[in-house]
Amino acid sequence: xxxxxxxxxxxxxxxMPIVHTAKKIKEMQPGQVLEVVADDEGIKVxxxxxxxxxxxxxxxxxxxxxxxxxxxxxxxx
Amino acid sequence: xxxxxxxxxxxxxxxxxxxxxxxNIAVGGASSGMDVTIxxxxxxxxxxxxxxxxxxxxxxxxxxxxxxxRGGAKRLPLSKFHMMGVGKAMMQRLxxxxxxxxxxxxxxxxxxxxxxxxxxxxxxxxxxxxxDAFIPEVDSFAGVATYIAEASKSKISLFx
Lengths: 77, 160
Known about the structure:
The complex is a heterodimer of chains A (about 80) and B (about 160). With about 80 residues, chain A is an alpha+beta fold. Chain A is built from 2 helices and 4 strands, in the order βαβαββ. Chain A has helices at about 15-25, 45-55, and strands at about 5-10, 35-40, 55-65, 65-75. Chain B has one domain (about 5-160): DsrEFH-like (Hypothetical Protein Ychn, Chain: A). Chain B starts with 5 loop residues before the first strand and ends with a strand.
């Protein structure tokens, strides 16, 4: 999947990946896609829930061994 | 989007691990688009005391209490396995290993995310502490009516 912006959360645990995601999304334009690279497994369940909570669109996860590429699309506000 | 949802936390405890839990939930909520308020009361006030300087108060009992209960985000003990600070140092080492922020860093992060800090005036009065003993991040000093007003509109309200 292609992303407009990437944020590196490798080595970070809850709640930090969500905090960085929220900060980045704030700076982005509606419709742009954010890629969060993380290795805390919790994000697999956390990110869809975060998206539901904030109204952004969870696009999916690509797993590359322990490295997780999580994609979220910023909602039209 | 509609009006922001609210979260209200009461931090009654003054231990590092409990403060970590509270701030974890607070920054998580703020990052999920919620309006978050933390009420600091009783031992929880220790979390928002300045790390520097001494706590001034009047009377021998209050002086004794404030000497033993110095507080400050960097001085909080662990609720379990504190072991005169040895356990705490080990826990901080483990936190560092996973890049987890310490309490003073979480305070900064929470403020960046507009988490509101309210300090309980009853405890402050009882313990005889002055407002200048607290960090400037405290937004206001208030009582239970303010908590009720906030909590009654909150979807999440926790006592820690």
